[in-house]
Structures are given as C-alpha cells and as structure tokens.
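Researcher: Structure prediction, please.
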Amino acid sequence: MSECTILGLKENLGKSNTTLVDVREFPEFASGRVPGAKLIPLGEIEKRHQEIDHDHTVYVICRSGKRGGEAQKKLKALGFPNVVNVAGGTEAWKQANLPIEKHENAVWDLERQVRFTAGLFVLIGVLLAVFVHPYFIGFAGFIGAGLVFAAITNTCGMGMILAKMPWNQKKEINHLGEIKI
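Model: Predicted structure follows.
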C-alpha cells in the first residue's frame, strides 16, 4: 500500500488531480484539519465513495495514520486505483507547524472528551467510595480497566460512544467538506 509523509502531501495539495479525504469523525475534523480536506468518516466510506473522483490521486488522512490505512484498503477494494495514506496524520501535520483550519464553534476533539469523561468517572467513583460505600471503588477500577483495554487493542469504546452523542454530530457539511452550523 502506498504511503507518503506530510511533506509529500503538502507538495501535492492543490494539484488538479488530487483529493484529500479526512476519515476522522466530525468533532476531530472540526477541531483541526488540513486546509482543503473533505470529511468522509471511515465508517461512511462505502456509502459515500461516489463523492470522490476515481481518476484523482486520493490522499487519506486521519489523526495518526491507522484509520487512514483502513480507509485506503476500503477505497482500493471499491476500485480506486491510486490511494495514498498520509503517515503520521494530522498530528504530524500539526507538529510540523503547517496550517490548520478550525471551526470557530468546534467541540473538543474525541480524545480530549474521553480523557475528561474517564477522569470524571474515576473521580466520581473514588468520591462515592469515600463518602457513600467502599464498593464504589469498583466503578473507578472498571474505568481504569477499560482504559488499559483501549490501549492494548488500540480501540476506544468510550470514544465510539461519545462520537454518537448529539454535540458530536455534524451540523451540515457541504460537498467541499465545509462545516455549516
């Protein structure tokens, strides 16, 4: 499978035969994206692939490169001849201090929401264990075990649940990937 660095992407952005598809979820996209990226979340690739020109070189980008690789496989299976995964994703783009577009009313990105929610649940579990009943410490332990599982499997159930919350749903995104609230 073909892969490029963020500098390779930067070099090719703006060419007439190039399309950049961001496969992250709406809150991540809204909180910071490569200028010109079109949002098609990984889970929507199969039903929205017709929005992408088959004749273009399609660059797929996510947060770090993992979902981009999955999207690359899906697009190849759908008949796209030239799909390139951007290694390092938007995190590498940000670290290189390249320009980022943000929506002015963007919600927190999912990772930040997960850290907040997990921390809040652990705090509540500990406080309930101290002030109500010691068995509530199991609630904090359950959240800790979930975080360990998420790290080992590189999946996050809490993130998947939070992505479905109403505040994380896209308001309206036009064919160019522009957000309208």
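Model: The mean pLDDT is 90.
Researcher: Thanks, that helps.
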